[in-house]
Fold these 3 entries.
Entry 1:
Amino acid sequence: MVIFDCNGVLVDSEPMAAAVVAEEFTRAGFPMTPEIVARYFIGRRPADMFAAVEAATRKKLPSNFAALVSAATLRRFRVELRAMPHMAYALTWLRGPKCVASSSSLDRMRVSLETTGLLKFFENCLFSASDVPNGKPAPDLLLHAAATMRVSPADCIVVEDSAPGIAAAYAAGMTPIGFVGGSHADASTGENLMAAGARTVIADMRSLKGTVIALRGW
């Protein structure tokens, strides 16, 4: 089975999402830039990000902050979000079971995949970190996805664009592939993913099928 992260892997969402989050933090009195959001929180659950900011600033966010961020993000996604280049091609030709395991909420995943035309490839095989005790880099979400799909962790390949996601896959006993083809990736992204435990790194989704075959012989 191949488990895909959503943000920054299936959809090219990370710069957009970081901009929205930074804007909402700043509006709430917590000045922040998209660069700071990307540096520290890509791949993490929103709830964990909010808790970290509150701990660092020793101030409480507004009680409705999570809802504000979610609504603003979905509004922008519905208008601007695009699938990662060649993603539909990769999903069409990739054999075997597939699912999505994301730090995002189920609503955000569905909007992302519906907007970009990718939902048909996964049906109801969507898993959110909101449903497990610990988000990435803990392995909880990926183990939950594998158990629900009735696949052994050792038989899972995980495609991730963030170090926390790669670390989660490694901790789960799965085979991590790093993806550096998103618009948020820079020169250091591949090195960071390899350091976190990626078996290999790809920059173009057209090479995913060959990479999966090379790693596991599927």
Entry 2:
Amino acid sequence: MFDGNIKGSSLPIVLVLLAIMLILVITLVSVVDFDTKTAENIIDHEIALDVAEAGFNKYLYMLNNNTYFYKDGENEEEGFIIKERYSGADNPEWNGYVKTYEPVVYKSGNRILGYFEITITPPAIGTPVLGIQSTGWTADRKAKRTIYVEVHKRTFTDYLLFENSKNESVPFSSQSKIKGPYFTNGDLHALSGAEFFDTVGYAGRNRATGAIFRKEGQPVKMNPLGLPTINENLTKWARAENGGYTFNKDTYILLNENKMNIRLKDETRQTNVPYPESGVIYVKGDVYISGVLDGRLTIISEKNIYICAKDPTVEEVSTQKQYDQLYNYRGVTYKNQNIPVYNNMNVINPSDDMLGLVAKENIIIHNRTNKWPQASKGSINTTVKDIQIQGALYCNSVTVQDFDYITNTDYGQIKYLGSRVVKEDSATGIVTQTIWGPKYGGYSSDNIYDYRMQYEAPPHFVEPVNAGWEVVTWKEINNN
């Protein structure tokens, strides 16, 4: 009886132990399963983030190949098929621009890792950055993550005036008004009273004692900005196969709103010529230009570009009376003058017109000739008061053909609207002391920045060495 009672009482204990062991096994299995699922979930979310990053980087690659890919870029081979465009109701400035692309498969070899979708927020006045939203999913769509990256491309048109001169600079006069961002690779040189309204950067010395800086924290000493030469990358867009025009001799151009008149030296004038599809004209000689632009155009000259007040495509004029009878275009201007400037940046439906003038030598204000339109030391005075130059300029220097020839007290100003890049400082006016008092020649200047150029430039305009899109901000967006 005793032995039987002991054996009988051990059964419940065994059952309890078995139950405990079963609970421990189930718990362990549950913990392992939970940890496995958690680890898988973490891995899936990391993969989704990697796919989103890959989508951003792939889009950035497309953008670096074409600065304006964000406007209308589509590349089916790379997977970028437009899904949705912006309308004028979203923003009149963005009307027709890409908003969202179809989801793109992301592979590693033949293995599908996931999908990404790109949505674009174009730059605008006041926010000159491009927003790229990239959403990444795993292949089974179990995990999704979204990043939003703002990028900006540093260009020469970031500045109202960029000077590369490292020699003795020509100072801004005491009456100068610089109504936009300014940068020089040399000294900041301005006389007392010169007034700067926006950012000011310099790489040399600060020689602007007494100048007025309206923006807090200015001026700022910065690293130099590399300056390229006019090379194959710029001129290739003027080739016929790329949709451009190339002319092999001196060329006279009248911008006739949405068309142009052109005459090559010793040839007959052509009228109502359409602008090139690529937006680029390359001239292996001097360029003489005036008129009103309705569109986008970049003109590159192997030599000089002469800014004229009247139509340079007409046949030669040999008397002052004949010249005076020609229509006065007052330089080169845009048809649509609705342009954001320093005291009015929030314009509605800003102008789409934009001109680039690139000269291997100089951009010169035409003011004297023997036979119009040739620039020569003749007796015909081609000067116009308050001449206007609207566009982005790139050259050795901007100067006047012969400012000593202008003997009148005041021919007014060169009214710049846009952006200028000059390799060397040069004067556009001169004051000579005589026994009868000061003698004034040439022009003073009024400098106004076109704030569209913080994020846009004329077609295929010159870019800094190693220019690329730079990340300004990066953040992850919570998909919940």
Entry 3:
Amino acid sequence: MAEPRTERGRETREKILGTAARLFHERGVTATSVEQVLAGARAGKSQLYRYFPSKEDLVSEVIRYQSDRHVGWQLAVLERLDSWEGLTAYFDSLVASHAERALIGGCPIGSLAAELADSNEAHRRELAEVFSLWEAAIEQVLARMKAAGKLRPDADPSRLAATTLAAIQGGYLLSTLNKDVRPMTDALEATMAYLLSFAGQAMGEGRGAER
């Protein structure tokens, strides 16, 4: 794919990409045509194909775009976390960001995975890598907490991270389906209670984080 050589070209490419990401999230990839993307971005077909040779290429770039926007900030936050209080705040931020999007489209990465995992192997692998990075970041938080005595020695950060990410995705789905933030809030509160059941002796602020 050609990279824009001018500022105007970069702006056009970014507008096409942002429009595609929004429409794919709101309507789905299959239900969104190239023509709809072009109309939303106010771009010509030649401009689109200059930067994205096919719709498949556009989808791959949207996966990267959504990963950067909606998982990238989480990785940065999780990199600094090592406490129960921090995990509680992280969960709260996920609920708040979904509510700010009016509970539309579910998780921007999860919704792509649900649609594309069985229809395009290349996209499945791309999405699996995003989820792998996300899960690994949660695992590292729990590993740091275990090393600090905030998790019991028998706690498995890998399994707890997988359970946590599954709860996050389930919360996104049910809140989107019901147009009610409560299922996501309940799922994450239950997840926090489960994680706290593995708390070590050095809980510290963990008791204050329990809700």
